[in-house]
Recover the amino acids of this structure.
């Protein structure tokens, strides 16, 4: 099992940086579906999309760094998005992130599980943070001998 010492060492771990570019045509299609007509300003959901797909690590690699795999049943427990300015299509954003919290809990139904929170920041070309995506993963620890 992923030990509590290993879990504690996750806090402060920097994630590999990456980039994301909002495709102008994709953005127009998304805003058309959401708003009923296309708009030039990308939808705020790009705070999640850019962060999640722009960070320089895949979801599988991220989960592996947490000592789990998709087959263990990890879940997204919470997601908080903040944006300071609208996104712009066609420019490159840099995405950075780190692990901000990692705690072990025990529950009657789930047994032993970990809550790992990451914070992903999307930076514009001037390196200004324009959005933050804070995600908490719920990671069942199925190897727990007390859990059936």
């Amino acid at each position: 099992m992923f030990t509590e010492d290993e879990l504690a060492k996750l806090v402060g771990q920097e994630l590999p940086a990456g980039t994301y570019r909002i495709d102008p045509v994709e953005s127009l299609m998304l805003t058309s579906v959401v708003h009923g007509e296309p708009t030039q300003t990308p939808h705020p959901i790009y705070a999640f999309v850019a962060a999640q797909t722009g960070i320089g690590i895949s979801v599988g690699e991220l989960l592996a760094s947490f000592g789990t795999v998709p087959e263990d049943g990890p879940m997204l427990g919470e997601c908080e998005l903040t944006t300071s300015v609208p996104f712009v299509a066609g420019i490159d954003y840099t995405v950075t992130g780190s692990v901000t919290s990692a705690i072990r809990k025990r529950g009657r139904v789930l047994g032993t599980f970990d809550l790992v929170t990451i914070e992903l920041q999307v930076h514009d070309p001037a390196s200004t943070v324009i959005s933050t995506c804070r995600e908490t993963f719920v990671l069942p620890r199925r190897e727990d001998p007390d859990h059936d």
Notes: The helical segments are 4-10, 24-35, 46-54, 59-65. Residues 77 and 143 are 21 Å apart (CA to CA).
